[in-house]
Amino acid sequence: MSELRSALAGAVFDGIAKVQEAGLCGMIAFRGDLSATKVKNAVTGVTGVDMPGQRGCNVGGDNGLAWMSPDELLIMVEHDKAELVLETLAKGLKNQHYMAENVSDARAVFTVTGKHAAEVIAKLAPVDMSTFSVGEIRRTRLAQVPAAFWMHGENAYTVVCFRSAADYMFGILSMAAQEGSEVGVFG
Amino acid sequence: MSTRLTTGGARIARNKPVTFTFNGKTLKGFEGDTLASALLANDQMLMGRSFKYHRPRGVVASGAEEPNALMNMGEGGKFEPNQRATTTELFDGLVAQSQNHWPSLEVDVGVVNNAMARFLPAGFYYKTFTFPKFAWKHVYEPIIRKSAGLGKAPTERDVDTYEHFYFFADVVVIGGGIAGLQAAKTAALSGAKVLIMEQDPAWGGRAVVDGGMLGEVPAADYVSALVAELEGMDNVTMRNRMMGAGVYDHGYVTGYERLRDHAPEMAGPRHRLWRIRAGQIITATGAIERPLSFAGNDVPGVMLAAALRDYLVMYGVSVGDRVVVVTNNDDAYRTAIAVKKAGLDVPVILDARAEGGGAIAGEARALGIRVENGKAIAKVTGGKRVKSVKICAQAGEGGVLEEIECDAVAMSGGFSPVVHLWSHCGGKLTWDEEHAMFRPDAERPPKGANGEGFVVPAGAANGVLDMGVGLADGDHAGRLAVEALGLKAADANLPAFDQAVEAPLAEVWMMPQGAGPKLRAKAWLDYQNDVKVSDVQLAAQEGYESVEHTKRYTTLGMATDQGKLSNINGLAVLSHALDKPIPATGTTTFRPPYTPISMGSIAGEARGDVFQPLRRTPMHDWHEANGAHWEPVGHWRRAYCYLQGEETPHEAVSREILATRKSLGLLDASTLGKLIVKGPDAGKFMDMMYTNMMSSLKPGKCRYGLMCSENGFLSDDGVVVRLEDESFLCHTTTGGAERIHAHMEEWLQTEWWDWEVYVTNVTEQWAQVGVVGPNSRKVLEKLGGVDVSKETLAFMEYTQGKLGAFDARIFRISFAGELSYEIAVPASQGAALWDALYEAGEEFGVTPYGTEAMHVMRAEKGFIMIGDETDGTIIPQDLGLNWAISKKKEDFLGKRAQKRAFMDNPERWQLVGLETTDGSVIPDGAYCVAEGDNANGQRNVQGRVTSTYYSPTLGKGIAMGLLHDGPNRMGEVVSFPGTDGKSYEAKVVSPVFYDPDGEKQNV
User: Which of B61, B226, B659, B744 is the most buried (most CB within 10 A)?
Assistant: First the structure.
């Protein structure tokens, strides 16, 4: 096994919220008929979480399922399990038209945590953070790059973007979390 | 003399003195002061010079509408010009300088313009500088450029930070005066999520200054209670120091929050631009008092009546001991009474109305103030401050009846509702005869997607100037807004109030009404741009009928204040000159932002390192540490070459190429687009997307493919790999990944939605390294694992497995024309793979190379480059790529288009190689000339260069180009004139300069 490197080696910024690169996560871009029982069974089977509805995101530990579009899911697993999960899916979905690609390394993952975490996100994404809650995902943009995020706990958000934009993402999240920049409008 | 009184000043904290400097002079003020009030407290009446005539000017207003008191604020990285002294909160250490004068505010040589004023009438730019023709560029423009602009440009980078903030609310209330506060309360009680913003630090607006009773309590107390109540509501967000900057389609509002202007030492962003989605917007933006147009109305000390009252009541500042009040309405009497009650003198109130004022006039008389009805100011005397007013009859032509000494003049020409935000998105106005003002027309609001209005005006902004009625109007607006959202309006329990009984206002657009040319030429409409009554009349006389044209001709309302004081007065003067009613003339267009907002707030976080996203490959850090000379490719940063020691980029590129061709090179090819196409119909789909036959490709094999748009033009190229029976990997160009992905999705979603195919962009999943050169196989064998021998992995084949410690996909493809492999590993392994290859390659003199070496090597091989050989007008046939266009396929994107007469045509320029006769390099973009000239007298052309390089391999210049009938002209010498005066002669040759038989890549 060669040495694995995430984009920013766990970089941390502490301001009005804590921004941290979360390291490597297993992610599979899955496309298929999300209403098919076979598909539902396969994806919930490999993750152990419930099938999410529109703009939904169910996460349990390292595993999760996120709704990305009417025919696309993001399957989350441990980083070193992704290839194995692909094989399991292939077995479960024989003769079913679907696509599953390991995109774990195409991503950079960050956590934004703390009392003002929602404000940090709201400075960058055109999303109503006053109503955003656990179990939801937004596939949107943060400033100038595509991104998705969900809550993994109270005042705790996971942000995903393309790996090549990791530096930019860390930069904008850190700037949005700079000292003295509390907005004070949520909660 | 203006001074601080010993009492009064609701906003200032007399126990908190503050020190600041103005033009280098150290002055004192109090916390709570604005810069303007503090300057007045220090008897600094003169605050700036006007733009055109450099006339001395003092502050005329007390808020956002101020045209005169603009300052160069701050120093160094915090410097900003054109800041209003009236909206700048004073803080300890503030540094301000007045603008637009030289050498000093007191003595300005530019004021010579004063004597020349009659040579600078409206439209003088257009009239004066047209002859002689050469003089514009060499004489006029340089002089105008020197004198143009009010403040100085900053010389240092802004040290502050800025940010955006996205917010959503059911009801957004703009303006925190009494109407706005009440509207917010009513909406909030009805269950709406409410955001209310106020540009000022304090809530309550004029009600706090002017007093009066609401129910049992004074207005100021009522405001405090209202604010406290709103602060206690969970569904209300209150922001002061935040201006509603603009209203846009779909209930989009921008709010400009000034966080640190009053406290620059605090950490955090300076400004925050709120980007708000509102269900309904309530504009409770108040009203602006209008000046009166009399001669000398710009002398420092002449001020809006309500502003003078503000300075007195809110800041305890007297603008003068003897204040003459001149008005056409009852409101200005409040100023006279306030001045008198402060123990100062009001020698006379000049009421232009023949019948005079209402009840309040009696109040003034009872205080012993002399009130003169039907009287006006003929002229104000004084230069840098008011000395006296000359009184005349308003009905006359300015014959002086009396001269009264005074040191300040408070004027009021009525009020104009701030309709800007109502109008930004198309709200229409109606002319209110009674109050002589434009106010929002409730029947014609700005409309949203459902065809219903989404903006509701409230209070003074709706033309309701009375405080009590304004409060009720705020409640009404709140009700309208929530009902439009489908909520039931709650009862807000309004207090009892007495509506003030006022005498009607009289329209006074010129003072006196029969003022002659001399007076009119000194009666200012637009203070900042020096536009006078006479200028607007001249424009009308010269045929300018449209208010928009007059505005541009005279520059009325075109300064940084955008005509907040001058707009209505100017168009009234124009209407009279044109003999048209005012509503027939109309207003100019109101556009956001309401007042100028900082460029930083617009940019938000986008500055410095995060100005733009820069995409980095997994090996980026290695490149950076090893001399990478960067090149932007889309948003990616790629190494153009790697500089060693003192070498130039040109030398580095040559070194990289020679080393690669001789032994071993490494290229970071991670940016290459990688799309997976999968499904039972994948083969069929691939055949449509590519010009080649892709369905016949065997798993494990690679094929170079071309993609065209439906118009037949070459759009992208790359190597296609069949991974499995139902799955293809499509390599695209670096810049093409997202574009081609979208192109594929579009066809799948709109045309072939019933085909069973999915596409995913996996570009960033893989780090990819080109291992290139005669020793490339040896290096891979050294790492061990997958068999990459000639027998097992032939040219244009693909395999996967463990390469050393890496999970690798190995493609034996070549863009350089050497034995070469592209190794793809998951991005997390990319940096380690690069290190491993570099280490293993050291015995072969491994040489990382950049994009330029890649370009040159492909050109030596005659391979095309999308974007060099193609420009959106090129079809594959132009480039001799007929071999990659399937003739067996029934259809593919572009096939039909390529059959059109002008596509399938021998007259099209064709790709050839070009070899200069003297070994020089043809300049990039050079055209190949033909005999004779065209109809425009330009030289005829017969071709152009598409790629041109110095080839270190061949030791001479090589190029590719498109040439008329090119392939049939081999050996012919053609000419390419450069812009350097030389002509480059080149022989037409095959585009394949290096290893035409492909022996090197096939070993």
Answer: B61
